[in-house]
């Protein structure tokens, strides 16, 4: 089973006095076809990054570790099935991915996907794989460093990619508003309500996968708890 989610953009600032209600949360997991699907990782995350400069690699891995820690989830050195279960590819042109050995075995119909990405002038894409219980077991993140992304600080790209892969968000979740915000000192942070939602989503009492929108009431209740 697989699922795909698109790119993020925008930059609305969250009002800390405003609490997300179940209906607002539902939009983060309601796909463009109208279906509701929530999923989180069911196993420790093992990332591997390709195509990134050595000096930038710690920034990305640090962002992933920070978001995983926020979620209360775990990372590991090796995944028993794939070795690495979170594969992130940075390229300057989508055609570069066609030359990656054995990538078509991990991403079926890779050629057709790359053609769609070229036609859409996309600069990022995410593909998820799931276990028998519906929890995320692997993710593939494809990033094309176009002129727009080249102008974005590495820390912003890293945190954005980390948060967008920690849950199976709707393909529309961050089209109009980024999950990040700029702090007064110029650094980029995860929006507080998105951080609270991520943390709530990994409550061990909750199922790792759900197609029932009433889950949002349980998520909302957990977000309202003092931390």
Specify the biggest β-sheet: 5 strands, mixed
Integer tally of domains = 1
H/E series: EHEEHEHHEEHHEEHEH
Q: What is the CA-based Rg, rounded?
A: 17 Å
Q: How widely separated are the two ends?
A: 35 Å
Helix content: 25-40%
The mean pLDDT is 89
Globally, the shape reads globular
The strand order across the widest sheet is 1-5-6-4-3
Write down the oligomeric state.
single chain
Q: What's the number of extended β-strand segments?
A: 9
List the total number of helices. 8
Structural class: alpha/beta
Strand content: 15-25%
Low-confidence stretches: 1-17
Characteristic key phrases:
9 strands, disordered N terminus, 32% helix, two-stranded antiparallel ribbon, five-stranded mixed β-sheet, alpha/beta, 18% strand, 227 residues
Please describe what this structure looks like.
With 227 residues, this protein is α/β, with parallel strands linked by helices. It contains 8 helices and 9 strands. It has helices spanning 22-27, 57-71, 103-106, 110-120, 147-150, 154-166, 192-201, 215-223, and strands at 2-5, 38-39, 47-50, 86-91, 124-130, 136-144, 180-182, 188-190, 209-210. The relative contact order is 0.24. Mean pLDDT is 89; it is low at 1-17.
Brief write-up:
This protein has 227 residues and is an alpha/beta fold. 32% of the residues lie in helices and 18% in strands. The longest helix is centred in the first third of the chain and has 15 residues, at 57-71.
């Amino acid at each position: 089973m697989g699922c795909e989610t698109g790119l993020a953009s925008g930059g609305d600032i969250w009002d800390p006095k405003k609490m997300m209600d179940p209906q607002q949360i539902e939009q983060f997991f309601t796909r463009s076809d109208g279906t509701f699907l929530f999923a989180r990782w069911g196993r420790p995350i093992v990332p591997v990054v390709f195509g990134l400069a050595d000096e930038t690699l710690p920034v990305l891995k640090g962002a992933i570790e920070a978001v995983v820690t926020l979620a209360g989830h775990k990372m590991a050195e090796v995944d028993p099935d794939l070795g690495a279960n979170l594969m992130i590819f940075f390229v300057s042109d989508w055609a570069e991915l066609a030359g990656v050995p054995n990538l078509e075995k991990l991403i079926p119909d890779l050629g057709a996907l790359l053609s769609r990405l070229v036609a859409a002038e996309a600069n990022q894409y995410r593909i998820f794989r799931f276990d028998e219980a519906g929890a995320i077991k692997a993710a593939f993140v494809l990033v094309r460093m176009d002129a727009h992304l080249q102008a974005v600080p590495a820390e912003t790209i890293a945190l954005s990619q980390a948060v967008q892969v920690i849950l199976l968000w709707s393909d529309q979740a961050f089209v109009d508003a980024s999950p990040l915000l700029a702090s007064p000192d110029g650094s980029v942070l995860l929006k507080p309500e998105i951080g609270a939602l991520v943390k709530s989503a990994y409550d061990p009492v909750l199922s790792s996968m759900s197609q029932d929108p009433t889950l949002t009431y349980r998520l909302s209740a957990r977000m309202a708890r003092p931390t």
